[in-house]
Design a protein that fits this description.
By secondary structure, this protein is an alpha/beta fold. Helices cover 40% and strands 15% of the residues. The longest helix has 22 residues. The two termini are 37 Å apart.
């Protein structure tokens, strides 16, 4: 957290414990690195009385911070960055991150919808994503969990109605009709697609608080690093969620 590596995090926690007057031992950074391989971080669980959630989906890149990172910072060397893609699912109502699979950069957003939905503990009332998820495979995957979930994905500019649009229109066919009749901006407002801006804001919050890089050296430890970051952000949101009231 706060863009700190494990060694700096060890010093920060030690200072906080000292200021609190406690005598607790602080795990060293090598121990933290080893434990990241097998650590099981609790998955977000919705409240018992919560109904189906409105899922917002987006992805972002996280660079890999290697051993030579300080050379780049000190000498300004130009190197080709290696990075991983983080796919994130949010609860639109609470802002909680409910799924966060980490994949290689080549992984297509649409292909990761299934594994992302597998991490969501609650049922899904609606699925909102950008045009990268305008795929038949994505629609079929979302329709399976459960079939009545609304799919709010903007069709591509070259999209055409399905063969059954006149007799049995799909959700995508209805989106195309709404865009053709009222324009894309009006469709975004009517369908609720404008809520996806919250996902973009949440990605900004993730990178501002946690950082835009991964410091672990293996993919298993990187996945744990992401899970810990998600758990911390959700905890911070629980403690300091603002109460917003629309006045106009």
């Amino acid at each position: 957290m706060f863009h700190l590596a494990l060694r700096q995090t060890e010093g920060l926690i030690g200072s906080v414990i000292h200021l609190l007057g406690l005598t607790l031992a602080v795990s060293d950074h090598t121990t933290l690195s080893r434990r990241a391989k097998t650590l099981e971080v609790p998955r977000p669980r919705p409240p018992r009385d919560a109904g189906p959630l409105h899922l917002l989906v987006d992805s972002t890149g996280l660079k890999l911070c290697g051993a030579g990172e300080w050379l780049v910072e000190k000498h300004g060397a130009k190197t080709r960055r290696a990075w991983r893609k983080l796919h994130i699912g949010w609860d639109a109502d609470t802002g909680q991150i409910v799924a966060a699979p980490l994949t290689n950069k080549e992984r297509d957003d649409g292909a990761e919808v299934g594994p992302l939905l597998d991490q969501v503990a609650a049922s899904v009332a609606s699925f909102t994503a950008d045009g990268a998820c305008d795929q038949e495979a994505v629609a079929a995957t979302v329709a399976d969990r459960p079939p009545e979930a609304a799919i709010i994905v903007p069709p591509r500019s070259t999209a055409v109605p399905s063969e059954t649009a006149e007799t049995e229109p799909t959700q995508r066919d209805r989106h195309l009709q709404g865009i053709a009749e009222n324009g894309r901006a009006a469709w975004q407002k009517a369908s609720g697609y404008t809520k996806r801006a919250r996902a973009e804001a949440a990605i900004g919050r993730f990178k501002q608080v946690i950082g835009d890089g991964l410091r672990a050296r293996t993919d298993r430890r990187r996945a744990t690093e992401v899970d810990v970051a998600v758990h911390a952000l959700n905890r911070m949101l629980d403690l300091g969620r603002p109460i917003s009231v629309r006045i106009a």
